[in-house]
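Notebook, bench 3.
Goal today: get a predicted structure for YneF family protein from Paenibacillus solani so we can plan the truncation constructs. The sequence was checked against the plasmid map this morning, with no discrepancies at the termini. Length recorded as 78 residues. Pasting the sequence as submitted so the record is complete.
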Amino acid sequence: MDIVIPIITLIVGLVGGFFIGVFYLRKQLEKMQNDPQMLQKMAKQMGYNMNGKQMQRAQQMMKNQPMPGKGQGRKRKS
């Protein structure tokens, strides 16, 4: 029993942390779609300098891309 409880606690913590991380990341991406300054900041951190037209195109691409886990399953090839 002294070994089982820490292992179960570790597994529960890892699973919980994963889902909290996914939730946080999804919220950040949703915020970024609506906030051009946040998108510009991320682009600069990655080494890109985007002009206004490129910013609009990037926002449009993010809005058109479905969020994973929002009822969008993988499409099967038939």
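The chain has one domain: 4-64. Residues 4-64 form one domain.
Flagging this for group meeting.
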